[in-house]
Design goal:
- The chain is of the alpha/beta class.
- It has 3 domains: 126 residues, Sandwich (Immunoglobulin-like), CATH 2.60.40; 154 residues, Collagenase (Catalytic Domain) (3-Layer(aba) Sandwich), CATH 3.40.390; 81 residues, no CATH class.
- The strands form 4 sheets. The chain has a 6-stranded mixed beta sheet with strand order 8-10-9-11-13-12.
- Strand 1 and strand 2 form a beta hairpin.
- Helix 4 packs across helix 6.
- The protein starts with a helix and ends with a helix.
Length: 420
């Protein structure tokens, strides 16, 4: 086992801009996102501080992606922007369900930011599918606030499965065990290694291995498996994960985001993968929140890579249903924020540069050339009006062998954003 604190001591010095405004610690801010379709609210649930800041130390005031939510930190004294980040949440997805029309609900969400030296103002904003703000919360943070949780914690058992660089220079991904009993710890480590190998076998991750660290963190319990509501099975797993999210049988998520992050205190991490010890097929991936996927199913390798495409890369699903021509999530007169699908409302910033000049737009699937980069109709769940870059992709099917060119371009841009 590589000592974490030895890695931290070896980390290179921070850039002057980071050192001017931040100390080398993480501030974790917990929120409750609440409401229904008619009205949404954001409430501050609490704050905690952790050891080393594992996130980026450059391009601090830029957004990695737009997402469905943004956090902006500004200096309380000067008003200058100090840090920005973005995310998606289960709450945003739920607002598009029928239930949200009649039943208000609350969802946990956590954002990690570098610990400021002086008092700052934080603004959290959620947006709708039209990319317009729907609700905003602003609050101040005094780094000396006595109510910021500084609990002393004991490092959980962990194992580095891939170490590309020191935490300050690499993208740090923590992998958690869900539904693994105490005597299945080695099984979890083996499954976590399978997940890492699958992700790093896909380009552009394969070309950027030195830019990633993967650390498996033990979070075993007395029981195994996770909850399957459609079968009447409820299991007391580490994070209360369950299938049938929003009554969709295969959608596997956890409502206990705070507990997920609690399990990682003392671990340098930016992104989270949760492995569910169950043979049931399913998973979920939420941008800058977590990937959750099953490890006992035959499709574990492609699914964990697909879901990591969501949670790390902010990629949209490229599959669709033939009878679905419109969803509220993707209005056809608005360009999606995800970089691997388009409505052609504003295509120039997507993968237009990858298309040969004589390629028709939209593009049809040819019998002689089944995989040219183009603009193929169908994606983001709808058959008409949303387009993808190739006939098949890891974000479309489990049988695809690679990410499409649009996904690879999007992922490369994001990796460069975090590391260069």
């Amino acid at each position: 086992m590589i000592p974490i604190f030895a890695l931290l001591i070896a980390a290179a010095a921070s850039t002057p801009a980071f050192d001017d405004n931040f100390v080398d610690r993480t501030l974790r801010i917990d929120y409750q996102l609440c409401g229904d379709k008619s009205a949404q609210h954001i409430f501050l649930a609490g704050m905690k501080t952790d050891s080393v800041w594992a996130g980026r130390r450059h391009r601090l005031t830029e957004l990695p992606l737009e997402g469905r939510g943004q956090l902006t930190m500004t200096s309380a004294e000067t008003g200058d922007t100090l840090y920005r980040t973005s995310f998606c949440s289960l709450f945003n997805e739920w607002l598009d369900t029928d239930e949200a029309a009649s039943v208000p609900r609350a969802f946990e969400h956590t954002v990690l930011v570098p610990m400021p030296k002086e008092t700052v103002n934080i603004t959290l904003t959620l947006t709708d599918p039209y990319r317009k703000p729907t609700v905003t919360l602003s609050h101040s943070v005094n780094p000396n606030d006595i109510l910021i949780d500084r609990t002393t914690y004991v490092l959980p058992p962990y194992r580095y499965l891939h170490q590309g660089n020191t935490p300050d220079k690499a993208i740090d991904v923590a992998i958690l065990a869900e539904g693994y009993s105490h005597d299945q710890l080695e099984l979890f480590y083996a499954d976590a290694l399978t997940a890492v190998e699958s992700i790093l076998s896909h380009r552009p991750f394969a070309d950027n291995k030195d830019n990633f660290n993967f650390i498996a963190v033990a979070s075993t319990t007395d029981t195994n498996d996770v909850s399957r509501p459609k079968d009447g099975q409820w299991t007391d797993s580490a994070f209360g994960s369950h299938f049938s999210t929003f009554y969709s049988d295969r959608y596997l998520t956890t409502p206990h985001v705070f507990a997920v992050n609690d399990a990682l205190r003392g671990i340098p991490y930016e992104h989270i993968i949760i492995l569910a010890n169950t043979p049931e097929y399913g998973g979920g991936g939420i941008y800058n929140s977590y990937t959750l996927t099953t490890s006992r199913h035959d499709a574990f390798r492609p699914v964990v890579t697909h879901e990591f495409g969501h949670s790390f890369g902010g990629l949209a699903d490229e599959y669709f249903h033939d009878n679905e021509v419109y969803t509220n999530e993707y209005p056809l007169d608005v360009e999606p924020w995800e970089r691997n699908v388009t409505t052609l409302a504003d295509f120039k910033d997507k993968w237009e540069s990858l298309i040969e000049a004589d390629t028709p737009i939209p593009t049809t699937i040819s019998e002689t050339d089944t995989n040219p980069t183009g603009v193929y109709e169908g994606g983001a769940y709808v058959a008409k009006g949303v387009y993808r870059s190739t006939p098949d992709c890891r974000m479309k099917t489990n049988t695809a062998t690679h990410f499409c060119p649009a996904c690879q371009l999007a992922l490369t841009r994001l990796i460069d954003f975090y590391t260069r």
